[in-house]
Design goal:
Helix content is 0%, strand content 57%. It is mainly beta and 273 residues long. The strands form six sheets. Strands 1-24-23-22 form a four-stranded antiparallel sheet, with no helix packed on it. A four-stranded antiparallel sheet has the order 2-3-4-5, with no helix packed on it. It has a four-stranded antiparallel sheet with strand order 6-7-8-9, with no helix packed on it.
Length: 273
Amino acid sequence: MQAQLIFYADNELLEGPIFDSSNNLLYFVSIFDGLVYCYEPNTKKILSVRLDSPVSNVYLKDYKKVMAASKNGFYEIDFNTLQATFSFQIEIEHDMRFNDGIEDAKGRFIIGTMGYPDVLPNRGKVFSYHKGEYEVIIENTTISNGLAFSMDNTLLYFIDTPSKKVARYSYNMVSGDVEFMDYIIEFKEKGSPDGMCRDANGNLWIAEWGGACVSVWNATSGKKLQVLELPCPNVTSCTFDNKGGLYVTTAKSEDQDNNLGGGLFYFENKNFQ
């Protein structure tokens, strides 16, 4: 299957794609540029709003409105007016920043951290924020990355990239508590797991940093099912649209001959779900 290059603006690190299926809009971020993008597939129009610190991911709110997580706080962004308004902050150490995040079915913002500007082993955490209060639910991580829920919301899958594993936690939707169960997937080749999403069958689609692909895994057995190759090594995350197509974000690499890293790609739905 051929990946289509949808957007390229020489960004170093695109991340955090999330699709608003109700309004047919894609959001993604350029972390170090502090940019949040809104892409309209029907018109190919792209809007952007810049924040004043690294931005990691967004949570959907309303039509052309999102909550964006940045190092200096969480901002509500309105792409109707291209305005950003400070909303709240989760207090983290000065040498840390936020990374990947997800919203649970009760509206909690789940989000992890990592060292910044340097990676700091075992200093990261995963927070849960809801209605003005937050707590730590996972500790001692290094590069907190992909998060995904099982179809029944009783399991939370989580990637700490240097571990090269996908951890499985039980998840209590009432309390928001998590409890480690086991590691369901281990990466034994050159690629390391980064961001991920879940498909309609419960499978995990995992972007591989250094692996030039998105790999597909059975979340129950841990068996690899499929690989979608991309034309650049550092693949950061992915999300499905309402047609079953897959958007994929990427980052630049040390390979000077590769000039597609940092682009946004798209795989049309060819019944790979």
